[in-house]
Recover the amino acids of this structure.
């Protein structure tokens, strides 16, 4: 029996494109040989040259809740962009330093058999793909004019159709960490606890500690590659937390704390439990990146190493009594 389409032809919808959500219209639908539903989308106010086929996971119902999500995505993206701009000066200085080495760097890049140079290129592409792929496994939007002007920079390449049909990348969680997520879900869904924000070991602290651990006594190349990997993980986390990583019970708390602290990133508030949830979703996100198989395998090896680090420090990082607390009395009344 063929799958049933959630959206009708001519229906007004919201659609992910890059890291943002846009108002759109569903022009037609199609079911692939693999019985996957796709929709041919027209973005409101845009030339038909932007029309494209997208998987159902990128399309959202046009309703008040999803419009609110669209605003949250825009806010998270703007905050992330501001943070990146603040670091731009340091990054530019480093890049100029590398360019000053001229021929020597070109020499290194030309040796494809050099593991470090190959890994660095893959990691760099992973980071660059963050903005164009945190999307396909979610749904939200933005209709402001300033955002639209930037859209050409977020537009995927002509390989869109190719990467939309890639097989999902599987990130295998250690068995011990799977039980961590099961225990956490019971605390939230059965006992109605909330994260004690900010937690003691935030995502930022965990990633920084991991970099220090990996860099201790190692070469600068190792430190740089680890920094790049953790930078990508941090960016994916900050953009996806409010979209895909929260239980319904947690969402009002997230909305309130981000409204009260608009300049504070999720990675400065949440900790290991929510970071682990990211790795459940991350494989699906990577399926929409234009990375080749070799690059994916290199990234998976880095993720596996990081997950082993989380498992090794399980007792310290995953503390339900420390990281979860009872909500305020009126929280139950409003959102229970």
């Amino acid at each position: 029996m063929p799958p049933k389409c959630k959206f009708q032809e001519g229906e007004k919808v919201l659609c992910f494109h890059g890291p943002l959500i846009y108002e759109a219209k569903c022009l037609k639908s199609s079911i692939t040989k693999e019985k996957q539903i796709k929709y041919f989308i027209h973005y409101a106010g845009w030339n038909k040259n932007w029309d494209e086929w997208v998987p159902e996971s990128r399309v959202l119902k046009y309703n008040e809740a999803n419009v609110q999500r669209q605003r949250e995505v825009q806010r998270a993206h703007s905050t992330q962009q501001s943070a990146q701009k603040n670091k731009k000066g340091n990054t530019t200085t480093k890049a100029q330093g590398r360019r000053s080495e001229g021929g020597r760097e070109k020499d290194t890049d030309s040796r494809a058999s050099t593991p470090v140079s190959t890994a660095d290129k893959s990691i760099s592409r992973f980071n660059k793909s963050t903005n164009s792929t945190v999307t396909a496994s979610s749904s939200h939007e933005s209709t402001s004019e300033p955002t639209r002007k930037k859209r050409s920079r977020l537009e995927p390449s002509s390989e869109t159709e190719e990467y939309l049909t890639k097989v999902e990348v599987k990130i295998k969680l250690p068995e011990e960490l799977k039980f961590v997520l099961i225990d956490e879900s019971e605390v939230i869904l059965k006992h109605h606890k909330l994260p004690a924000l900010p937690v003691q070991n935030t995502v930022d602290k965990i990633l920084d500690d991991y970099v220090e651990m990996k860099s201790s006594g190692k070469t600068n190349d190792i430190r740089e590659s680890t920094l790049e990997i953790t930078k990508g993980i941090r960016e994916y986390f900050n953009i996806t937390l409010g979209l895909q990583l929260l239980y319904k019970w947690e969402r009002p708390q997230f909305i309130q704390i981000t409204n009260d602290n608009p300049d504070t990133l999720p990675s400065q508030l949440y900790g290991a439990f929510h970071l682990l949830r990211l790795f459940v979703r991350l494989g699906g996100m990577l399926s929409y990146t234009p990375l080749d198989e070799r690059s994916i395998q290199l990234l998976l090896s880095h993720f596996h190493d990081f997950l082993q680090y989380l498992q090794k420090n399980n007792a310290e990082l995953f503390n339900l009594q420390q990281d979860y607390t009872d909500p305020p009395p009126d929280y139950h009344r409003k959102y229970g």
